[in-house]
């Protein structure tokens, strides 16, 4: 079989694909690390130095034992596997991420184990398991080169007076320039404290190097030099424990005084070609050098394979931190793991990945980031990466390119730094409690931090034969055959005897004649007991018991997480939108499709879940999960989805879920016990045993055993597998046939495979810019291409996000795309805006030259502000051309122009003491700009300062790509089509300046008043309290036609009132000119610029109109003049307004003879008003508008009932005095009180008498209020109180029965029509189902 063909069919079922040896190439000698040189090249290019000269010189400033030298793949077997091509650069980089490491006999040389994975561009993963140990350097050339390098380093050190010791050189150089790159500081902080950790390395001795000899120095005449070497197995599945044990035994064979039973090639050939993958739901035993190794694979209905010890991740971080990290990963933030130990990085990364079931991480995933690839941290996309720290390196010195959306996990110090605006995982407290119970059951502390820093150091540190046998149980296990661990020759003898009839007869004859064959019988019994070990339980070694315990703990913890998702998404299928007839049309239209009814799904969830869920369903991992669900109608179900759907079905069968979908009651996992049974059964009864290692057809004399040195293996025997069929080749052939059939079937599909794959990749990459960076080819050209992909990805993401925000907000298109209603929930809006803030931070972090704070955007804004202030100082002497824009006054009259200024908005944010961080300020500024519809304009202004952008950003940065930048600003400009209150609704506790302007009717005589006016402004979040306005603030302005207008203006500051709803206006009726005809009141939020108009059009004064000295006005948001034409069609509906002047006069004043509504119109308006109130209460609480508007605004309940009461009201004037509805109510109440006293109502049933008392009490309370409200105001107040206390339907019959009605109403009046009144009572009855609450501005001063 040729080397290249080893990868076809059989490789799919092999346990391991490659065996690799990495280390120093003695022929090429010491070479500086190319990738480190490439990094120097990139940094020199960024700093404007000549890149070619920057990398030529050696860095003699650093100790040779600390420098990075190039490692090489010394050997790998087989040459290639077709289904998994060998990536030499990536494997070499990940086996020895720091390059070659040198030690002397004084240093700590404990072997280390770590894992890694390589993610291919299609998302598939290959796992590597590495055992690194130190081998003595025997090459005189290498030792001489190291001696020379050390002498040169000492000479350089001696000639530099500023560097007292070599260990401080890197730190001092890293702080020489305050403008050093963030990547420079990152690299230098990682290089610090590189000295080996053994205290013995600090022992100083007399030698040629003087003071340096004790600090990691090397003297060839006195020291022994060691260099790192890595043994690696590359496997298609993460069988971590099995690979670790195999490599440990391989290392033990190398360091043992006695050679192994067989040449090492036999064991490596066996694991590469003769050990199959265990079938799903089965266990497999194969034989290493000293002990057998067992691995098992979950069944098709179990959780997928996860062999990394999850318990260790919980020990390292603690339950609380791990749940927080898990939440960050679910929300696709940037995750950076940080530890000295590579294996810890891998364990935490893989543990988090396995807990995501049934979802999968869709973005950049590099659990071990080699030091040469630090520029990957500049990626403006979600990532999950692991970075190795050095001992005693301070976290504060680690400057990362972007931290606004970063979750930083310091594994060794058991701490985690979370991003701002971080929602909690649903039922977090109960969830942590359940996880803690599982951990305590296995003796693990939920607090974490219990493990020592050397947890991943292997158990072979003091390996001599025999010392590994920890107890008698383990010794018996190794000696006897219960695990098939019989010496090779004994097995051969036994097989020979058992297969030969003549020898069997001789054996029987020997027994009869009394000859002892005890040894042979014992051998036979031992071999026979191998198959019975599962049945009698056998005795497990301490290592096996520990492995079983870890496996049980892992699966129980995973079940708790899987149970949470099963409970939270039990009904997800009901909200999946199946809109395409076939796969081809679905794939081609994927970008336009709306696949999940998010609004309906969220409306079905318990309130506490919403902050998390609203953000989670916007992630790429959730979108991919839903895509897989939709594609499962045409293709085979994706394995994770199949298991998850099976669990949901099972939960339904057992009726685990609470009957109410909206229940947030926590449900514990019910399958913990049974989940571990399958694992135990597979371990106790081994299903398959692989072929034993055996002698190969090798050349004699090669690869001679030498203790402590890994031999050069014979490549010809390892290049390919056995040609004869073995036990599992039939299964391989069957699997290959099945694959071929599936391939043929795919080729017959209507959709061309290449086209289908293209669509699939495009569909699945929606919202993602780069799935995985390529580790192997890292030329500057490839890095530039990668950055270009980032730029394209960011632009695409911006387009998707702005479109999503517009569609959700604007209505009609949203309904067509599957939203339940033409509205967006406040929660969903907040989620989308938070997501936009994250995107802007990532764009501003891309290609940053100098890291100057946690928020790149705010840092850029501060630079701009400083420059603008300097320009303003220079212009202070000649303020002719100010240059700053001004926005036209929204109101036209009365309000001074509000200046539009980027720096002014920044100052507003800087004055908010509630915001403490740079990231918070940047997000507040984005929200403010978005609410003011200035985001695109402000950012365009910010980026128009080209010298500043050039100074802050590298050439490849997004913000320096002109065409993409223009498109980006255009997408943001589209957001001006809709109204956002994302600043006002979020920062509810800040102090805001408001300007209130009272505008009288234009006639100058009516505008004058001698009384003392006051106002009280109310909003959704509170009111300003009564503010007296001094008399001398009467101002005069001129309109465009130079007509004079007078108004009263005042500025006040109070806590954020939210959206404004009402204004109370009044005066004290003092002076000669006390009557005042007010046109309207204008109120403007001086930070957001939102202006509200509160129409009045009525008198305030005694003896005029209805005699009111104060009124409650209902507000409407004023549309800025520039938007009235352009954006009107797409705007959200305006707020309800105050009852207009025309309606007021036509209803209340009998002199108004306008067009009165007929009876049908009146009844319709009442029905509509009640219907609006009912709809108000059917919305989620956070999305309801203001109830006062629905009660008292135009088209509200009060106005509709006023029309009803005015229908047929007698129009005769009494001495030119207006008659009001309130006059009728007062007379009716007076009649009831008098009649009650005289006993005339004795024949009336008791309940009516009680209702009469209630009406009298309420009317008297309204009349006795200290407030000077007029008769219309009193009627409004009575209706509001009656609606609140559910009394309107009891009062109406009393008024209808009262004899006063005949004097004040005509026969045709609606109030005198019993049928109509009964119909009105029925309509008002529907309000009794809802708790109506009234604003304090309405009920102030009422004593009931």
TrEMBL record:
InterPro entries reported for this sequence: cDENN_dom, dDENN_dom, DEN5A/B, DENN_C, PLAT/LH2_dom, PLAT/LH2_dom_sf, PLAT_RAB6IP1, Run_dom
Domain PLAT: 992-1114
Subcellular location per the Swiss-Prot or TrEMBL entry: Membrane
Annotated region described as Disordered, given as residue ranges: 154-207, 447-467, 721-748
PROSITE patterns in the record: DENN (PS50211), PLAT (PS50095), RUN (PS50826)
Pfam (any one): dDENN
GO molecular function: guanyl-nucleotide exchange factor activity; small GTPase binding
Biased composition (Polar residues): 721-736
UniProt-listed Gene3D superfamilies: 1.20.58.900, 3.30.450.200, 3.40.50.11500, PLAT/LH2 domain
Key words of the record: Guanine-nucleotide releasing factor, Membrane, Repeat
Domain RUN: 827-988, 1188-1339
Matches recorded under SMART domains: dDENN (SM00801), DENN (SM00799), RUN (SM00593), uDENN (SM00800)
Residue ranges of every copy of the UDENN domain listed in the record: 53-636
Predominant localisation class: membrane
Biased segments, Low complexity type: 159-189, 197-207
Keyword Repeat: yes
Family: Belongs to the RAB6IP1 family.
Name of the featured protein: DENN domain-containing protein 5B isoform X2
Gene that this sequence comes from: dennd5b
């Amino acid at each position: 079989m040729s080397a290249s063909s080893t990868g076809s069919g059989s490789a799919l079922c092999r346990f391991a694909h490659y065996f690799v040896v990495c280390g120093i190439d003695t022929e090429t000698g010491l070479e500086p690390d190319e990738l480190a040189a490439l990094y120097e090249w990139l940094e020199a290019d960024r700093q404007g130095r000549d890149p070619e000269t920057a990398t030529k010189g050696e860095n003699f400033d650093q100790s040779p034992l600390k420098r990075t030298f190039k490692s090489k793949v010394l050997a790998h077997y087989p040459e290639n596997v077709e289904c998994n091509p060998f990536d030499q650069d990536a494997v070499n980089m990940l086996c020895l991420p720091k390059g070659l490491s040198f030690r002397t006999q004084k240093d700590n040389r404990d072997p280390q184990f770590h894992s890694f994975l390589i993610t291919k561009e299609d998302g598939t993963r290959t796992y590597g398991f590495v055992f690194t140990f130190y081998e003595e350097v025997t090459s005189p050339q290498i030792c001489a080169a190291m001696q020379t390098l050390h002498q040169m380093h000492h000479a350089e050190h001696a000639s530099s007076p500023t560097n007292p010791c070599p260990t401080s050189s890197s730190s001092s150089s890293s702080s020489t320039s305050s403008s050093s790159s963030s990547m420079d500081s990152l690299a230098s902080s990682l290089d610090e404290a590189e000295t080996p950790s053994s205290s013995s390395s600090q022992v100083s001795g007399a030698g040629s190097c003087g003071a340096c000899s004790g600090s990691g120095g090397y003297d060839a005449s006195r020291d022994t030099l060691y260099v790192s070497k890595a043994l690696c197995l590359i496997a298609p599945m993460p069988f971590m424990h099995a690979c670790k044990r195999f490599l440990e035994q391989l290392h033990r064979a190398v360091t043992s005084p006695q050679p192994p039973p067989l040449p090492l090639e036999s064991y490596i050939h066996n694991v590469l070609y003769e050990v199959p993958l265990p079938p799903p739901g089965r266990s497999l035993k194969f034989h290493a050098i000293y002990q057998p190794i067992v691995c098992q694979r979950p069944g098709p209905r179990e959780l997928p394979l996860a062999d990394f010890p999850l318990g260790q991740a919980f020990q390292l971080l603690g339950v609380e931190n791990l749940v927080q990290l898990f939440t960050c990963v679910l929300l696709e933030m940037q995750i950076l793991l940080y530890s000295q130990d590579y294996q810890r990085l891998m364990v935490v990364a893989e543990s988090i990945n396995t807990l995501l079931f049934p979802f999968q991480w869709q973005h950049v995933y590099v659990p071990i980031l080699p030091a040469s690839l630090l520029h990957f941290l500049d990626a403006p996309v979600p990532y999950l990466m692991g970075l190795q720290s050095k001992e005693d390196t301070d976290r504060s010195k680690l400057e990362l390119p972007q931290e606004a959306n970063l979750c930083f996990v310091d594994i060794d110090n058991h701490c985690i730094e979370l991003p701002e605006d971080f929602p909690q995982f649903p039922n977090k407290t109960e969830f942590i409690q359940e996880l803690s119970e599982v951990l305590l059951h296995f003796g693990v502390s939920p607090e974490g931090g219990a493990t020592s820093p050397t947890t991943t150091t292997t158990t072979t540190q003091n390996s001599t034969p025999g010392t590994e046998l920890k107890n008698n149980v383990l010794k018996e296990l190794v000696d006897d055959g219960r695990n098939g661990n019989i010496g090779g020759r004994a097995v051969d003898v036994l097989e020979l005897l058992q297969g030969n009839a003549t020898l069997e007869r001789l054996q029987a004859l020997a027994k009869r004649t009394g000859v002892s064959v005890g040894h042979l019988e014992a051998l036979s019994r031992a071999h026979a007991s191998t198959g019975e070990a599962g049945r009698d339980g056998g005795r497990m070694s301490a290592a096996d018991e520990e492995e079983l315990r870890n496996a049980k703990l892992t699966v129980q913890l995973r079940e708790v997480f899987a149970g949470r998702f099963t409970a939270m998404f039990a009904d997800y299928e009901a909200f999946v939108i199946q809109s395409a007839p076939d796969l081809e049309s679905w794939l081609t239209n994927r970008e336009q499709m709306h696949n999940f009814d998010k609004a309906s799904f969220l409306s079905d969830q318990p309130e506490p879940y919403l902050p998390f869920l609203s953000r989670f369903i916007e992630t790429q991992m959730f979108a991919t999960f839903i895509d897989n669900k939709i594609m499962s109608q045409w293709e085979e179900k994706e394995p994770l989805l199949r298991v998850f759907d099976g669990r949901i079905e099972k939960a339904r069968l057992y009726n685990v879920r609470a009957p109410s979908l909206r229940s947030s009651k926590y449900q514990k996992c019910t399958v913990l016990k049974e989940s571990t049974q399958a694992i135990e059964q597979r371990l106790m009864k081994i299903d398959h045993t692989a072929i034993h290692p055996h002698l190969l057809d090798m050349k004699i004399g090669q690869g001679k055993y030498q203790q402590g040195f890994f031999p050069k293996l014979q490549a010809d025997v390892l290049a390919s597998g056995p040609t004869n069929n073995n036990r599992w080749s039939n299964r391989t052939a069957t699997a290959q046939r099945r694959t071929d059939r599936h391939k043929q079937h795919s080729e017959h599909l209507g959709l061309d495979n290449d086209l289908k794959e293209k669509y699939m990749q495009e569909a699945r990459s929606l919202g993602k810019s780069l799935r995985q960076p390529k580790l192997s080819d890292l030329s500057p050209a490839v890095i530039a291409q990668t950055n270009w992909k980032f730029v394209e990805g960011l632009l695409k993401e911006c387009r998707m996000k702005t479109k999503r925000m517009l569609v959700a907000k604007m209505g009609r298109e949203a309904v067509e795309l599957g939203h339940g209603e033409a509205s967006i929930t406040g929660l969903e809006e907040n989620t989308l805006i938070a997501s936009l803030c994250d995107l802007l931070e990532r764009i501003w972090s891309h290609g940053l030259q100098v890291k100057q704070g946690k928020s790149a955007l705010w840092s850029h804004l501060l630079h701009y502000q400083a420059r603008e202030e300097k320009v303003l100082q220079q212009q202070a002497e000649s303020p002719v051309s100010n240059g700053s824009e001004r926005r036209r006054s929204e109101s036209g009259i009365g309000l001074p122009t509000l200046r539009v200024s980027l720096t002014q908005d920044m100052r507003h944010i800087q004055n908010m003491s509630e915001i403490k961080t740079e990231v918070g300020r940047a997000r507040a500024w984005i929200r403010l700009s978005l609410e003011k519809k200035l985001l695109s304009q402000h950012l365009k202004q910010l980026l128009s300062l080209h010298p500043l952008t050039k100074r802050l950003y590298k050439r490849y940065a997004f913000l320096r790509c002109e065409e993409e930048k223009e498109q980006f600003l255009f997408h943001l400009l589209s957001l001006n089509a809709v109204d956002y209150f994302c600043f006002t609704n979020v920062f509810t506790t800040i102090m805001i300046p408001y300007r209130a302007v009272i505008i009288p009717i234009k006639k100058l005589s009516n505008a004058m008043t001698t009384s003392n006016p006051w106002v009280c402004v109310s909003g959704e979040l509170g009111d300003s309290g009564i503010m007296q306005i001094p008399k001398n603030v009467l101002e005069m302005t001129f309109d465009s036609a130079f007509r004079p207008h007078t108004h009263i203006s005042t500025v006040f500051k109070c806590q954020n009132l939210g959206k404004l709803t009402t204004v109370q206006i009044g005066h004290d009726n003092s002076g000669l000119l006390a009557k005042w005809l007010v046109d309207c009141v204008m109120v403007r939020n001086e930070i957001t610029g939102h202006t509200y108009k509160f129409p009045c059009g009525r008198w305030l004064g005694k003896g005029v109109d209805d005699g009111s000295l104060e009124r409650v006005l209902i507000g409407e948001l004023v549309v800025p003049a520039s938007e009235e034409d352009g954006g009107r069609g797409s705007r959200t509906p305006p707020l309800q307004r105050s009852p207009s002047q025309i309606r007021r006069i036509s209803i209340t004043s009998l002199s108004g003879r306008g067009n009165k509504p007929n009876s049908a119109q009146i009844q319709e308006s009442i029905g509509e008003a009640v219907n609006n109130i009912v709809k108000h209460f059917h919305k989620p609480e956070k999305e309801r508008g203001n109830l006062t508007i629905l009660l008292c605004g135009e088209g509200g309940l009060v106005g509709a009932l006023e029309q009803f009461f005015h229908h047929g009201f007698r129009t005769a004037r009494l001495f030119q005095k207006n008659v009001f509805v309130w006059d009728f109510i007062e007379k009716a109440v007076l009649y009831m009180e008098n009649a009650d006293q005289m006993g005339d109502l004795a024949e009336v049933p008791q309940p009516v008498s009680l209702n009469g008392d209630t009406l009298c009490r309420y009317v008297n309370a309204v009349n006795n209020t200290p407030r000077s409200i007029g008769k219309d105001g009193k009627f409004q107040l009575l209706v509001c109180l009656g609606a609140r206390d559910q009394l309107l339907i009891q009062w109406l019959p009393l008024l209808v029965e009262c004899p006063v009605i005949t004097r004040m109403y005509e026969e045709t009046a609606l109030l005198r029509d019993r049928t109509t009144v009964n119909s009105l009572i029925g309509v008002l009855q529907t309000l009794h189902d809802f708790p109506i609450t009234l604003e304090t501005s309405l009920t102030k001063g009422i004593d009931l």
